[in-house]
Amino acid sequence: MEKFVLHNPTKLYFGKNSIQNLEKEANNLGKKALILFGKNSAKKNGAYTDIVKCLKKLGVDFVEFWGIKPNPRINEAYEAINIGIKEKVDFIIAVGGGSTIDTAKFVSLCIPEKHDLWKVVKEEVVPQKALPLIVILTLSATGSEMNCFAVIQNDDTKEKLGFAHPLIYPKISICDPTYTLTVSPQQTAYGIADIISHLLEAYFGECNSYLADKYVFATFKEIVEIALPLLKNPTNYELRERIMIASTFALNGITYFGRKTPDWGVHEIAHNISALFDTPHGASLSIVYPAWLKFFKQKINDRLRLLGKNVFNVNNSDKVVERLIKFFKSLNCPTSLNDINLKKVDYENLNNLLIKNKPSGYVYKIKKNDYKKLIKLMT
Length: 379
Ligand code: NZQ
Ligand code: ZN
Fold this sequence. Notes:
- This protein has 379 residues and is of the alpha/beta class.
- The chain contains 15 helices and 8 strands.
- β6 and β7 form a beta hairpin.
- α7 (185-203) runs antiparallel to α8 (210-232).
- The radius of gyration is 20 Å and the shape is globular.
- The two termini are 37 Å apart.
- Zinc ion (ZN) binds at residues 142, 194, 197-198, 267, 281.
């Protein structure tokens, strides 16, 4: 095991009506908030009404920013940063899934010292301050509600990049599964593919961490147990509750303490697919993971077998990959580039983008000549 520091400062309120805690938490954060939303789901799931009621009761002024897209773009983030600076807001509230939360993280980091967002993403400047961020989670998938990661896309350069900074842990995250009852089965399935992928990125990270492995197996089994019942009963509260806590804990540190780093190679490749074709995050992962596992099969054989034994009760690495593909298919998630209707020219464009952006992963390094082979495994 690698030595480590575990410091996760996010205070999580979990469960029905946990929005009631917003009042006391927002009370001492200042006089004005900037609230970020996606397109319109916050009005359908009840979160918007609850938040507005609470802030009005508190006498906290607020500015609303609507329209953060899935695979969030820097353009909206720049707009929100400018509004936040102009309106002199004291704190940020993000209402939504990973796209809104990640955008809010960048906004909270760029406002106080008026940093240029893209320079922050590229680590050309290192912010020293951030505005406090409150998250109201409405979609179980990314774990962004309790971690220090954020991902954003630049359409001009065709880059979708991950970023980490200790100042972007949300201060408070309010996780009420009730708000997720309106999530469509397809979006729920993409979330499940994302959770599984976070478990695997950690599991194939550098250095063994035996207890962390056991968290991976337990969470994986929990997901496999509840996935299909949830897709059949998307408004079942108990199942929404179980998936929500699994998604938060799949990427809050508990699965990768004692490892030097998760691998992240699959996420890096998947981000290029999203940057090029606007593929939903979970869908791009369910395409890349089977190919990545096949590509590195020799190197990861023992780890794959251990995973198979603990999660699927199979002892053969090929069978583990087969079972994973079968699982993704049962969720109606794509498992090949054909499934998202790409053509030959798209494969060439993807190969060129990979050569330009050089996604690699930290442990099982992917090299320039490997991209074509990986794309072939994805078709
Ligand atoms: O735009 P609205 O109307 O809000 O609709 C959204 C959006 O269309 C909808 N949705 C959200 N809550 C809903 C709902 N629909 C009905 N009812 C609700 N309660 O879901 C759609 C997708 O939303 P999005 O936020 O894009 O989904 P997700 O949570 O999967 O976030 C994906 C983004 O997070 C990044 C991904 O790369 C991607 O950009 N990630 C962030 C990570 C992190 N910060 O730790 C790690 C992840 O690996 C991931 O990379
Ligand atoms: Zn992910």
